[in-house]
Amino acid sequence: MSEDIYREIILDHYRNPRNKGSLPNADISIHDSNPLCGDEIDIHLKVEEDTIKDIKFEGRGCAISQASASMLTEQVINKPLNTIKDIAKEDILENIGLMNLGPARIKCALLSLKVLKLGMVKYYADRDPGSAKKIQDESKLY
Fold it and tell me: Residues near 136 by Cβ (< 8 Å), separated by ≥ 6?
């Protein structure tokens, strides 16, 4: 696809985000920010039998960070929680269609993945600290 189409997709997810909002009684709620540009993301998940049954995000920031969060929530809903560890930087950049982002913009695009992976590790750490370490080691962000 051309970069123009990807830009339209990014703008659509930014203007009409999917799964945006809060999630009462979430099993996982995690927040992080990118202090260099001011992007912030909160991700809330409802997990049943280790499967993501519902996911919402809240945040503010640039179009790339917010669109990336919207796309990521669509990608992981109804998937096993531990599959999050297998999502790579390249998967996110391919989703948003901008493989040649500068270092600062890459951090914008990857913020929601970082938050989601932190939430997954926290979820497993709360249940079994030994398995959380293994999952954290397998979960590479960059």
Answer: 121
Query: How far is CA 64 from each of CA 40, 122, 124, 138, rounded to the nearest angstrom?
Result: 12, 26, 29, 26
Residue with tokens 């914008």: 108
Q: Could you list the residue range(s) of the whole structural domain that residue 131 is in?
A: 3-138
The domain tally of the chain equals 1
pLDDT tens, per residue, the chain with 142 residues? 567 777 888 999 999 999 999 999 999 999 999 988 899 999 999 999 999 999 999 999 999 999 999 999 999 999 999 999 999 999 999 888 876 778 788 999 999 999 999 999 999 888 887 766 676 677 665 4
Here the CATH number for the domain that contains residue 116 is 3.90.1010.10
b vs e for 33-51, b when ≥16 Cβ sit within 10 Å of the residue's Cβ?
bbeebebbbbbbbbbeeee
CA–CA separation, 9 vs 94, rounded Å? 12
